[in-house]
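A protein record pairs a chain with a discrete description of its three-dimensional fold. The following entry can be read in just this way:
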Amino acid sequence: MQALHLAELRIRTMTQLTHLDEHGNAVMVDISGKAVTLREASAEGWIGVSEECMKVISSGSAQKGDVYGVARIAGIMGAKKTSELIPLCHILNLTKVSVDFSEEGERAGCGRKLPDGTEEAQYWIRVVCTVRTEGRTGVEMEALTGVSTALLTIYDMCKAVDRQMMITGICLLEKSGGKSGDFVRRAEPWNGSLSAADGKSVPTDE
């Protein structure tokens, strides 16, 4: 009975996972029969930095240059290179990629625990990547890759000042278009009561 149950579970799993064929082999999904529609997705992520690091970023005095400017370009490039990083993603002709930052300040209960049991303040930056295309498949992975690349770039730009930076809360916020319809994240995002509107927005050059 247990073997039969496991076999049924395996069949159901392979049916749900579109990147597996009937034998459990990895495949790139054939999307040639899908309709071309407008598709959009947004993803967010957070990075916590020290007070000193936050001042360096905000003032534009980092040794490597404009942290937000470089991270924005990196996020855009990351979204465009998604198919080269995620093996089964399709190559897409993206029509829009935006990367936006907001400085959310200090959050209670989200500081760094020190060896003596005290908590050191940590300041948070929220990053949102939005991607759009007209195509046969969605751009969720592009949005997630874009936001991840932007966050990693912030770390790289600032590690000389703060090596204890923490990246967290990366998730899909919403997507639209396609056969599966619209998606809006039901669970409360990692940022809890904070939103981009609550913080100091960093203007885009576009």
